[in-house]
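Aim 2 progress update. The chain analyzed this quarter is reproduced below.
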Amino acid sequence: MTDVDQPADRTDALAPPGTTAPVEVVRLAPADVDDALLAGLGALVRQLSRSAPEPTRAEVEAMTASSATQVLVARTADGALLGTLTLVVFRIPTGVRAWVEDVVVDEAARGRGVAQALVVDALERARRAGARTVDLTSRPSREAANRLYRRVGFELRETNVYRFTHEAGPAGA
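Predicted structure tokens:
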């Protein structure tokens, strides 16, 4: 679980209420991808999206090998997977930017500080990478998530978010 691009590959958070072990946040490396991890990520993706397919081994290996994509997982000291978050850091002409995507905590672990541990860790990694800003999107119906994002310092932006879907039709039509 090492990463030469980052000065640290893990963060230990305080133990969430009701647990005895601290939550460990770790950036995954390709060598960490095994059947147990894939099963755990698959279960988390099912909780995040009804329509998204579970990631394949090749997809997770590609994400973890990418210098731009950091797949972070939160787990207990005994290895139980509690949640995940993907941090994407990239350079554009106006500077280094970062995006947080696919934040999900297992239903059984929600409300215990796991998402906050993931988000705070991601923000620190983005800062160390030189990101001027970190963006994310969250549906208004995800009230607890939105409270968390405001609590850790995100500000709601007035902006238009556009999405192009290739299945919807050809570009330029």
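Residues 10-133 form a domain with the Aminopeptidase fold (CATH 3.40.630.30). The first strand starts at residue 10 and ends at 12. These observations will guide the mutagenesis experiments scheduled for the next reporting period.
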